[in-house]
Write a structure and sequence with these properties.
Elements: H1 11-38, E1 45-46, E2 49-50, E3 56-62, E4 74-78, H2 82-91, H3 99-107, E5 113-116, E6 122-127, E7 130-138, E8 143-152, E9 156-161, E10 168-170
Parallel strand pairs: 3-9
Antiparallel strand pairs: 1-2, 3-6, 4-5, 4-7, 7-8, 8-10
């Protein structure tokens, strides 16, 4: 009787190994592709720098607040933390320099984005992705002031202004 050795060529065994190897490779490629498709979009790289991606539509709306009288209230998006800049300006005060000039030098080529609330207490703005600070002041009694950090990303973002997330509440006497 002849014993089979591992050196003998067995076509069925070789075909099974080949099929299992291909199945493993295709499974790994498919899993990687599914993960890649779910990643958030990244801006394309152009000459070593990131190209500007499309802006995000930001919907700002009042919640649990009266909307009558809110129409025309300015909603401003700043690309810098103005509270930190005001502290820096007070600490490094230069004679004859106004805060507006100091802010302009810090903004450089970046813009402040302004929108206004409509009669339903909503505002829409197109804002580039990144870290922004939303500023708004709703007149009334009490006067509500918002200074919210907002991470802008994706196609759409909803920001709700409520009494709970207000920066300050000022009462008039």
């Amino acid at each position: 009787m002849r014993r089979s050795s591992h050196t003998d060529f067995d076509p069925v065994r070789e075909i099974i190994i080949l099929v299992l190897s291909l199945t493993l490779v295709l499974s790994l490629v498919g899993a990687g592709w599914r993960i890649y498709r779910r990643l958030p979009p990244q801006p394309p790289i152009v000459w070593g720098k990131r190209a500007r991606v499309s802006e995000t539509t930001v919907l700002v709306r009042l919640r649990r607040l009266p909307v009558n009288g809110a129409a025309g209230t300015k909603i401003e998006f700043y690309p810098v933390d103005t509270e930190a800049l005001q502290r820096e300006f007070a600490f490094e005060r230069k004679p004859g320099q106004r805060f507006e000039d100091f802010l302009a030098t810090r903004l450089k080529d970046r813009q402040i984005i302004v929108s206004k609330l409509d009669e339903q207490g909503r505002a829409v703005a197109q804002v580039p992705p990144g870290k922004w600070w939303l500023h708004a002041t709703l007149k009334g009694s009490p006067e509500l002031i918002w200074r919210l950090p907002v991470n802008i990303s994706g196609r759409e973002l909803i920001v709700e202004l409520t009494p709970e997330n207000a920066y300050a509440r000022l009462r008039s006497f």
